[in-house]
Amino acid sequence: MTEGAALPLDRVAEGISLPLGLRDSVDTGEQTLVRASDDFGHIVAAPPLGVLRPRSEQQLQELLAFAGPRGLPVAVRGGGHSVYGQGQAAGGFVIDMTSMGSVLTVSEDRVVVEAGALWADVVRATLRRGLTPPVLTDHLSTSVGGVLCAGGLGSASHRHGLVADSVLALDVVTGTGELVTCTPEREPELFRAVLAGLGQCAVIVRATLRLVPAPQRVRRYRLYHADLSGYLADQRKLLHDGRFDHVQGQARLTAGPGWEFVVEAAAHHTGSRPPHDAGLLDDLHHERGTEEIEDLAFIDFLHRLAAEERILRVTGEWLRPHPWLTLLLPDDCVSALVPAVLGGEAQRDLRTTGLVQLCPLLAERLRSPLLRRPAGDVIHLFALRRTAPPADRAAVERMVEANRTVYEQARAFGATAYPINAIPMSPADWRTHYGPAWDTLARAKGRHDPGRILAPGYGLWN
Ligand SMILES: Cc1cc2nc3c(=O)[nH]c(=O)nc-3n(C[C@H](O)[C@H](O)[C@H](O)COP(=O)(O)OP(=O)(O)OC[C@H]3O[C@@H](n4cnc5c(N)ncnc54)[C@H](O)[C@@H]3O)c2cc1C
């Protein structure tokens, strides 16, 4: 069978006869199934029976109403950036939402988008009107639906919270095939269960997102710190005084045996009056004379990872397995845990491949209740972005195991997972992860997806 072939049969498997309205739209071509059983992680591969590229919400309703009573798993694919099969559905259906990826309307304070739209398309449309979502993820090839399901953390999260926190309204199709519009006031329980809800209760069809005026330019600073304590002191200061519009950071291996820490901060401006560098930097503890400063158009700042991606595509690393781990750490364990992880023997590969992010966040700004975060006012995103060598299954397994070790180490200090990781998670792990929010999620799942067919790739349920 060839890629893109419309289903020539009305039966995708023995005993499964598709309803008429879906027969032309479910693709069972071999290449399509292979693609739907792969993702950015290249670690897990679970082939579905077919892939639906919906042309309307009615088709989504029809598929879910069909799959629910039969207990057929259904996953949604947007940008395909999952790293551990989260968007796959073994023996079921994948909904490829890129067929519903239009930016519908942009008005002065909001944009209405189909959930399969990529963030790059969203900002292209909003910037034409001089507007932007208040917070965006670092990478803009992810889909609106995929990021809203995860929550969405970015360089402006210290100020504006999650990408999901800027959602004003959602149109969703639940696991029972019901089309529902939800907002903080209308169907609030479903609204809260969908945002940062890992696609467990519904497929997002459309989202209305808040917009704010976009700056014309951005002044970007990289501030190198030789020691973690000076770095953390500066990050906490920047978090509380809010002098920068964007705050992130990285740990980088030095030419010597140790690590250095880089504050990555940026301030908006119009171009006619760039910010006064000394006023922004004078009281910080970075190594004087090593700071890097550049001035960028806002759009170039938003696409700041594109050049890196191009290089990684040329070297081939972009297409290798990515056993990534992202955690949220409580402030009081960072200075002990981060050096222990970076120096740990099991984490040796971090010294030779990948990227380590360490970014400060204010807990109160992350409002979607299903995003589980550690206790305390200040928390830190700690991301280990490993790349495995090609065709070395043992290395991938070692890295996944190393992720698990770090997860358990961090969990003992009260850390939580940003739940899009390459680690096996049992239903018991998920129950621990959600803590007091577990019952809320389980109730919403029981009501909106009683057949437990949606988003099986996370492994939340037995
Ligand atoms: C290079 C890279 C950079 C990243 N940078 C960031 C970052 O800066 N900040 C951040 O927070 N995250 C980041 N992520 C993580 C990323 O945001 C999540 O993995 C997100 O879920 C990816 O969305 P997607 O549509 O690309 O992925 P997909 O794999 O297509 O989908 C991911 C999950 O979302 C669900 N889903 C997708 N669309 C819908 C929908 N319409 N309705 C219901 N469920 C849906 C799927 O079922 C799947 O489980 C990054 C990932 C990569 C690979």
TrEMBL record:
Annotated keywords: FAD, Flavoprotein, Oxidoreductase
Listed cofactors: FAD
Flavoprotein is among the record's keywords: yes
Sequence ranges assigned to domain FAD-binding PCMH-type in this UniProt record: 44-214
Lineage top rank: taxon: Bacteria
Keyword set includes Oxidoreductase: yes
Family note: Belongs to the oxygen-dependent FAD-linked oxidoreductase family.
Name by which UniProt lists this protein: FAD-binding protein
